[in-house]
Amino acid sequence: MITPPNECFFKIFDYLRFDYKSLYSCLLVNRHWCRIIVPILWSEIATKLSNRKFINTCLSSLNSDEQELLIPFKIILPIYQNQLFEYTSYIKSVCNIDNLDSSFDDLENGVINWLNYNGYEPYCEDWEDDKLVIAVKNSLIAMFLRTCKELKCLKVSGIIYNRVFKNLCRRNNIILLDLVKNHFNSEETKELIEYICKNNTLTTLKISCNFIDSWGEKALAESFCKNTTLTSLIFSGNCIGNEGVKAFVKVLYINTTLTSLNLSSNYINNEGGKAFAEVLYINTTLTFLNLSINYIGDEGGKELAKALYKNTI
């Protein structure tokens, strides 16, 4: 009997990528099928991030440096002897790419579920602001950055430790990066700017609810002018105001690759609306612009309407 090549098996099983029940059944048939299916199951983990069992497996992959982040909290980590696979090495995405507008953090939810199940008490009233949750999340993100050889999409929500952020900025193969409520200091903002300027793979970037200062906003906008791969930018909930508007208007004058821009919830007023209206007469690449939940009044709205009426893109 002729055995089909691995490529054929992979095509068949990859077609069942989201039919987990069938894949788990096939995985138990023999070792050959198991070796093909496990990388498929672990390549996209968005639906598993909030699962405490998934978190348990990931925590067992921490190295000594990553475990060091948890020492002050006296966490008892799971130990699995002789794992059959380096499971996390197959992960390509650590975020839900179909729901970028959401601020919900599946990884954080998974960490909280794991901590609750194992009887750990929060250090403060709110788990989301808890130092223990932040530490576990950072250790996991550090591990993902180290072990995920083909990591393409990553969401980092909440406070990120400086050394973890430095490792993130060294990655040059990420195409989608989602940064939410990170409270960047000036040094981290500079590193992020340098990363955006040098990166040649990033196509989607979300920097949301970070309340970056006016210098940071201008500098980030300058980096968007220099970046030549970014096509989608979400910069919502950062309170950029009029000075930030000027910087982003400049981006739309200079950048020729950006097709989608979300600046919702940024305290943009009438003058900001008029400024965006002016640039829309000239910009020939932007196909989506979100200025919702701002303070653009009737005058700014009228100017935007005129510009959109004449814009043919």
From TrEMBL:
SMART domains: LRR_RI. Keywords: Repeat. It holds the Pfam family F-box-like. The keyword Nuclease does not apply. Residues 5-45 form the F-box domain. InterPro entries: F-box-like_dom_sf, F-box_dom, Leu-rich_rpt, LRR-containing_regulator, LRR_dom_sf. It comes from the Eukaryota. This is F-box domain-containing protein. It comes from Gigaspora rosea.
